[in-house]
Amino acid sequence: MTTNRTRSSIKNSATALLGQAVTIILNFVVRTIFIKTLGVAYLGINGLFTNILSVLSFAEIGFGTAIIYAMYAPLAGKDEIRVSKLMNYYAKVYETIGTFIFISGLVLIPFLHFFINDLSELPKELPPLWVVYLLYLFNTSISYFFNYKRSLIIASQNGHIDSLNQLYFNVIKGVLQIIALFVFHNFLIFLIIQILCTFFGNYLISKKADKLFPYLALHKEEKIDKIDKDALRRNVFAMSFSKLGSVIITGVDDLLIAKFVGIIAMGIYSNYLLLTNTIRIVFMQMLLPITASVGNYIAEKSDDECHNFFKKLFFINAYFAICCFITLSTLVNPFIYLIWGKDYVFSALITFFITFNFYLDRMRATSQIFIDAKGLFWPIKWKSLFEAVVNLSFSFYFLLVLKWGIESVIIATIISNLTTNIWWEPYVVFKYGFKKKVSSYYVSVIKYTAILAISYVITVYMQSFFSTHFEGFVVKAIISLIIPNIVIFLFYNSTIEFKYSISLIKNIINKKL
Fold first, then answer.
1. CA atoms of 174 and 172, how far apart (whole Å)
2. Cβ–Cβ < 8 Å for 85, 224
3. How much is the pTM?
4. What's the confidence (pLDDT) of residue 512?
5. SS (H, E, C) 35-81
6. Pairwise CA distance, residues 5 & 1, whole Å
7. For this UniProt entry, which segments traverse the membrane (predicted)?
8. What is the spatial distance between Cα 413 and Cα 433, in angstroms, rounded to a whole number?
9. Structural domain boundaries of the chain?
10. Measuring CA to CA, which residue among 444, 452, 403 is closest to residue 423?
11. pLDDT tens-digit profile of 83-108?
């Protein structure tokens, strides 16, 4: 069982990583051509409408995560009827959500101009706002009518199938959008291509799920049991608070930028989000398949064994978070300068805030995995409500009272992370998941952050001797990769977590799964 779990995790993670590598390259190519052919204002519009719809997507209220957790046990026990019941219920819920989002989105059309600070920033050749917005709305809504079957594929530890599906259609979408930008210079055609690829990608993954799980078609009339429905409702209710916090942090924050700072600033900020979200997606893609394995592991192991596994996974998590922070914080401005030009570069201080917030966010990943895998949605329910209140309060204070710019929402997010997420989530995992005190975790976080500080100071000092030209950028990149690895090795090479990570790498290289 352990061998199968490890093999599935590595296979799924490797496939996800390959897919993301290709997607990352395509995204940067498309973004560069987009900026050159359409301009930064269009990036701001893209960010604005994407975030309006992310707020509407609150209707999903965490149902996808709850259903994946609910399917672990019946999939492990090969209970086909129970899996079918859950999927039938899932389908009805997601069809309702998709319809709700579309109708709610239509209601917002008369109020679109309210979200824009300065209408003069809009390009003169831009089609009517409602037409552009409607295309974004279509793209978001249609995914709910097929996309739910992805959850079954992921929960069954077949995440590599989902990753390949996304890879194929990301490549098709990217290539077609590049051609459209060069040939037509047309934003509407660009969006129509996105809609078609979203539809066909979701449709084909749905058909693949039907082939993998043919018994679904045999039990279409099966109704979910009251026990499962009550458990789902309880978890979804608890997760709705988490979803609310996520929507406010990611969606409402960006809407505040568009409203109080401007569309141009929103467009520039979206470039930084592309870079940080690219790394974040790689994190999620690598860890998402492992989540299914963690759920399987938890079902078989004791709390002590789960705690030991948590520490090993957290070390890997922290290692990547530190390395990514060092790389992003020291290279993102030179990279944007080289690729898109000096007009798209924020100050070093704002860049530091953006990347430090990324670090805090990624340090939460292991706790979030165990919360999902253990189904600890109820104990964590109030956390996101407090997070949202803190974030909005500081955002409005910085924007309206202190009259700060884009740094307002970034600093507010950092404060909300420090005052809620960074301590609350692990507290729930340790108290309700492991039945242990969480103090050792907090000590680990302090140690890892000290390692980050040491690595950052050394890296910045060594990079200061080199120019911002391409050759200097390459040297700086090498420095940013080497320094944190050396520092982490010096402090952690004798620990169990480090040795576990090395053995895992050796297993991957030698294919001893």
1. 6
2. yes
3. 0.82
4. 43
5. HHHCCHHHHHHHHHHHHHHHHHHHHHCCHHHHHHHHHHHHHHCCCHH
6. 6
7. 21-45, 51-72, 93-116, 128-146, 189-205, 244-269, 281-299, 319-338, 344-360, 441-461, 473-492
8. 27
9. 1-244, 301-513
10. 444
11. 999 999 989 988 998 999 999 999 99
